[in-house]
Amino acid sequence: MSLDVPTALIERAEHGEVDDVEFVACVKSSLPYAWTVVEGVARDLHAGAVTEGGFALHTTPPSTEVERGQLLRALASDAIRGALERHLAVRLAFQNCHHVAAFTPGPESDGARREFVSVRSQILAQTPALRDC
User: Fold this and answer.
1) Which uninterrupted H or E stretch holds 91?
2) Nearest to 93, CA basis, from 79, 69, 112
3) What is the mean pLDDT of each run of 10 residues along the chain (133 residues)?
4) How many CA within 13 A on the CB side of residue 94?
5) What's the whole-model pTM score?
6) Per the CB 3.0–4.6 Å rule, which of 18, 23, 49, 127 could disulfide with 44?
7) Which ranges in the chain belong to alpha helices (H)?
8) Measured on CA atoms in the order 11, 15, 20, 22, is the torsion positive or negative?
């Protein structure tokens, strides 16, 4: 299971929409490592701590399989990723098991994001150490 959803939140979802604030709080408590990574790249982006390409980048591998699983679940889910992007005012991209990038939403960062998620960049980011990630 990806998230530890409180019963009250499940009941609200059964009767209508759940707002992003409640959902993000659920994600934050269920996937704390993923939250730390994503919130960190968003904070770096907003503070101007960016790469030459103009985006914030997290490259530290997770120290456990539990952490790796949290990151994969958070970024593989369209609902979770979308809520995090809206909440943190970023556009996220994911490469390998731990390269997480935050881009400024909008056309000004489209070129850098396209390059980050390109087949070429994915191939160049591979190393034997990352084979099983």
Assistant:
1) strand 91-95
2) 112
3) 87 90 95 97 95 91 92 94 97 86 88 83 69 54
4) 18
5) 0.86
6) 49
7) 7-14, 20-30, 32-47, 65-76, 78-88, 110-116, 119-124
8) negative
